[in-house]
Each structure stands twice: as structure tokens, then as C-alpha cells.
Amino acid sequence: MVELMAPNAREIVCDPACGTPGFLVSVAEYLQELKDSDGNYILNAPGNREHFNKDMFHGFDFDATMLRIGSMNLMLHGIEDPKIEARDSLSQDHANIKEAFTLILANPPFKGSVEKSNIAKDLTKEVNTTKTELLFLALLLRLLKIGGRAAVIVPDGVLFGSSTAHKKVRQMLVDNHKLDGVISMPSGVFKPYAGVSTAVLIFTKTGAGGTDWVWFYDMTADGLSLDDKRQPVQQNDIPDLLQRWHSRVAPDVAVKDGSYKGLPLLDQNEETPKVERGGKAFFVPKDEIQANGYDLSINRYKEVEYAEVEYEAPKLILQKLRDLAGRTAVQFNVNAQQISRVEIPLPPIALQEQFINFYIRTLKCLENYDNGEKATNKLFNSLLHRAFRGEL
């Protein structure tokens, strides 16, 4: 996600549910290796290093252990003064931060609810729900500056949920801001901790709309097995995802030669060209998303390609069936003379006798065990009977 968002040296980055905090560490590592066009490290430019150490990194969590681990983790990665704060990001008590960050990366908790009385009132005003995955999207819009960007992991239900709150959140992103991309991920990417299907939403806060086209990508492999072991595998869509994301061009600015980046246009109307949707990545226009109830699931728009299969004429197929039905069944017989010619390998006589003796001894052992078990049961019942009669 960090490489998708490609942060610069002047960002103010936040993770409102930071935990350890992996996203902020990844941003630090990304910037420490980033160079300008002249080959110089960008953090060596005037003012960038000080901003990196004191003002860039912000993380919120309400777990004291996570706060300590997070602060230590960032300092070990070269950040002198990370701003890791004890905050319940969704609560009314911590609703005082607004329009403060230029970039938010988050994997907030989902598949849960919070007590409605504790939720910040400005969030429930935007989206009336107790579901954390929806509240966090409203929170991100509050925390971002105008022009700020966010990449957030959400469960698939956010993309197509039919409740009023689900539709309201999707409508906010599409109509009031700029929804840039939806990346569908396979269900095993968070195993063994969770097996739910998830997606990444990428958007820009504008407050005045801006969504013209939404870019979709169907990621089916991330370089690790999708079971609980998560072992390295050859299939990995991430390099392809990054290359396509950073080279994407919306169809409305495509060349006017009947193609878009080498793909044939299905509709050559200059205002709304429609690109083939059979591949892993494609654009969908805003009006089509609106017409589909703001559904953001990739399967709603992806066109599945089926291999063409040619079948014989129905009359010919029926005739072949009649021919098969008219044939007499053939039964194969094997006589005793044929069986007598079959050679069956046997071990030497001495080995056969050893096996027979072993088999006999085994039967005797089983017989003795059975007799002993019967005698034990008989003795136990007798003792139990005498105990109840008070004779012991």
C-alpha cells in the first residue's frame, strides 16, 4: 500500500488504528531509500530530515502495550520523535482532530460494532451506524486535509452492503470526494488471523466531488499461499498491480485512435469511451457506478470471457444417441482355464510356515486376552455386589 500511494518527503502521515505500527514503519523505510532525479536521497534536502523526525508520523491506538511497542518500533527505524498517542479514534472524547493529515494508511478493525453512545457525534451525523468499518471511513474523511489521500483495507461487505449506512458511505466517496481505485484481494491474505475477503479503497478528499472514473484491479495472488501456512509461492500479482496503477490513464484522456493503451475501445464515443473489462484491471465511469446503486464489487463490472465451444447439430447428436441405445450390450466372460494360467507369486514354503505360526500365536494371545477380560469383569461384578451388601 505504501508503494501504491508513493508518499513524498513533506507528507503528514497517520494511521488511526496503528497497532505496532506497520504502515508507518513502511513509509519510513520507503522514504529512507527514495532518491530525486539527480540520485540524491530526498531526506537530505533542507528541512526534510527534521520534518521526517518530528512532524511526519502520527499513530493512534487505545492499547497501552501497542503504544509502547509502536513508539519503540518507529524510533528503531530512525524516527526521533514519532507522535504515537493514546486515542480511541471513534469516540466523542477524541473528536478534536480535523483536517490534519495529507496521507492516511489504515487497516482498521472490522466485523464488529461499538456502543453508539461512545461514538463521536460528527461521525454518526455522516453515517448513522455502529459498524466500525463504516465509521472508520467517515473518520478518515474528517482527519484528511483537502487534497489528502487515503488507502484503507475494508471487508468486502463495504463494497456491496445494502444497508442505508453502507450505501451512504459509498455515495460520499463517489459523489462528494474522488474515489480513485478499488483493489479486490483474495480471501486468504490475512490468514491465519482472518479468512474474510477484503479490498483496498483508495480515495482523495476534495469535498467537491471529482470522481469521473474508478480504477478496478482483481488481485488473485500476493506471492504467498492462501492457506494458514502462508508459504511463498510463484504467483504474485503485486508487481503487476503497482506497474498498472502508476501507469494508468483514464479513458477520457485516451488517444483518439479507437484504442486505449493498446486495448480496443468498445464504445468510441469521445466523452465516455468504454474499455474492455475482461482483464485484471479496468476503468468504470462514475455514472455506471451510480446506476448500480454505488456497488463497488469488481464482479459487478468485470466481464468474464468464456472460451467458444462448437457443438454438433442437435439432429446429429440425437441420431448418435439412438445408435448407442440400439446396440446390444457386450458381456465379457472369463473361464476357469484362463484363470488357471494366471501365475500368483508366493513366498518360499519356510516363510509361509513362519507366517502361519505367527498367525496361530496371535490368535492364542487374543483368546487369552479375551478370557482374562471376562474373568476381570466377573471379579469386579462380584466385588461390587459384596460391597453393596456390606460384606467387604
Describe the model:
This protein is α/β, with parallel strands linked by helices and 392 residues long. Among the domains are: 88-300, 3-Layer(aba) Sandwich (Rossmann fold), CATH 3.40.50; 342-388. The chain is built from 13 helices and 14 strands. The chain has helices at 2-5, 22-33, 48-54, 64-76, 121-126, 132-143, 157-160, 164-176, 238-246, 286-291, 314-326, 336-340, 349-388; strands at residues 13-15, 57-61, 83-86, 101-106, 144-155, 178-185, 198-204, 213-218, 222-224, 232-236, 259-260, 263-267, 274-275, 281-285. The chain has a 9-stranded mixed sheet, sandwiched between helices. A 3-stranded antiparallel sheet has the order 11-12-13, with no helix packed on it. A hairpin with a 6-residue loop joins strand 12 and strand 13. The longest helix is centred in the C-terminal third of the chain and has 40 residues, at 349-388. The termini are far apart. Mean pLDDT is 85; it is low at 255-272.
Summarize the entry for a quick read.
Its EC number is 2.1.1.72. By secondary structure, the protein is an alpha/beta fold.
Annotation keywords:
13 helices; 392 residues; 19% strand; Rossmann fold; 3-stranded antiparallel beta sheet; extended; 9-stranded mixed beta sheet; alpha/beta
